[in-house]
Design the sequence.
């Protein structure tokens, strides 16, 4: 049974969007620059996979690990990136479904709510998947219903302190823009970068 229903409502569609987005890429896309400055599409997906593993390990153990075991390196293809991303997403989903009554994770001796970690996973999955495909004909917008729910949760994980060194300053958009565009802009991404 999922112990954090609100988190599950965010996590499942975000991971689905991530898997579908990654699967749309071609081998030629992997070395292309992503919407994350200085990172290729493959590097963004590798980072996302590592982040999901890290979050799963944190939820499972109850504390933030110093390091999470990585799979053996091998050839980087769309297939291997999708496989690793799917496995990491499954680990995070399993961890979110079995919190064993735990409500928080120790981060530097301070408690961080499990729900916040699940929200981080959902935001990472949705936004980094968009980052990896932005600028290709394969880029699809983050579903507006998912983006709207993530926007509501965003203040739990992104503020003035947590933004520094992680996200660029927000881009101001009119409030009548679609939720997906407002989510990307809130995290310092230009939604127009997704246009091929």
Sequence:
């Amino acid at each position: 049974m999922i112990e954090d229903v609100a988190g599950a409502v965010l996590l499942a569609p975000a991971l689905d969007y991530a898997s579908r987005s990654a699967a749309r890429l071609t081998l030629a896309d992997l070395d292309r620059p992503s919407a994350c400055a200085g990172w290729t599409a493959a590097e963004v997906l590798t980072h996302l996979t590592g982040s999901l593993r890290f979050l799963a390990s944190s939820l499972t153990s109850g504390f933030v690990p110093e390091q999470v075991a990585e799979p053996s390196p091998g050839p980087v293809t769309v297939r291997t990136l999708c496989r690793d991303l799917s496995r990491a997403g499954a680990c995070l989903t399993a961890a979110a479904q079995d919190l064993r009554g735990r409500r928080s994770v120790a981060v530097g001796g301070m408690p961080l709510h499990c729900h916040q970690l699940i929200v981080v996973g959902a935001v990472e999955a949705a936004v980094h998947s968009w980052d990896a495909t932005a600028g290709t004909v394969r880029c699809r917008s983050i579903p507006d219903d998912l983006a709207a729910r993530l926007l509501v949760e965003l203040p739990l994980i992104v503020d003035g302190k947590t933004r520094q060194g992680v996200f660029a300053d927000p881009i101001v958009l009119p409030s009548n823009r679609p939720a997906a565009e407002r989510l990307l802009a809130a995290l310092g991404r230009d939604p127009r970068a997704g246009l091929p």
The two ends are 41 Å apart (CA to CA).
